Amino acid sequence: MPTATAPARPAPAADTAERGRRRFIRLLGGGAVVAIAAPVAGCAAGVPEAATQPWRTAAQETDVRRWMLAHALLAPNPHNRQPWIADLSQPDAITLVCDGQRLLPHTDPHGRQILVGCGAFIELAVIAASHRGVAVTVEPYPDGPPAANALPAGTRVATLRLGAPGSATPDPLHAQITRRHTNKTAYADGRALPAPLLADWSRTAASLGLRSGVVTATDELQRIRRITREAYEIECVTPRTWIESAELMRIGPAAIERHRDGISIAGAMPRLMHTLGLFDPMDVPQRGNANHGRVMERWQAHETGSGFLWLAAPGTDRRGPLDAGRAYVRMHLQATAAGVDLHPLSQPLQEFPEVRGPYDALHRALGVDPAQGPVQMLARTGYALAPDGPSPRRGLPDLLRA
Fold first, then answer.
1. Looking at the predicted structure, is the pLDDT value of residue 261 above 90?
2. Considering the chain, what percentage of its residues have pLDDT values greater than 70?
3. pTM for the whole thing?
4. CA 355 to chain centre
């Protein structure tokens, strides 16, 4: 006869919750940081259509300044903070003000990445104006730049002065503004980048006085991948930098539509587990625990691709990040036109103390002396294996100041 077995004892509620949480982390691929790294896959993945509407309505504006701003707000920016206020109080001008409520004081303590995002905003505004036949003169920091180590809260970053109708010819990159998205999924390995695109990138950097390069050699790729992985891990296990990102998580359609910024988590599973209390984004990974392992496992997709693009400023002043942002977004538009993807990996360029080791290692690897002008942008590049969609954006009225 078969031996009778006693019925299994019910697991304590705490154990059940913990098993559920671990299963969720396994499925999701690593806690909160998966949301930081994963792309917003559009409305099909649960992102409300209203949250991405600005990508579809930019061309509906008739006033030239509003037209410029409707395209500029689609610029890439750190953690999708969208740190932009547009002051329209001067006729025929736009003054871009850095929104002090939308900074990243722990991961970006000097606001360098925020200013790169402001530079991208400026360049898209200039390109959009050219499509309407209007030239734009950019006056950086009309009141002077912020101090070297100060956050740029409330800084008047630039004044954009509009020329007369017919003063500009259309920039062909305008057509790519609403097509450009940052794809954070896995890329094909070993696929060569088109030579004409590399030449365009070099000319774009040089036009703004920046140094640039593309790393494709296998040994150099592996070295930079190790550096970026180390910097990512440091950001994850440092409580204040992890929590800064976790606080920007928008979990579920209602939160995504309400905020239209930050880190969107739209999938059904993380929403369910968050509701059940099995997913706490405030849990900081610690080396050696399961959450840390899953977090690092999720990074593997970011170690794929054809190479790395980098941009370095010619000096250490605050003009460097703006010019880098302007150059980077043009490069991304050029890549989009060529069917190539770009994904910024800013972790080893961050300036909080714990990440100093990778910061120095990256500069050595690229042969750049940061005292003479640091690297401002690092992005992996190649051909994504899965399509991407637009990230949420706040509407134009949220940016305007009359």
1. yes
2. 88
3. 0.89
4. 19
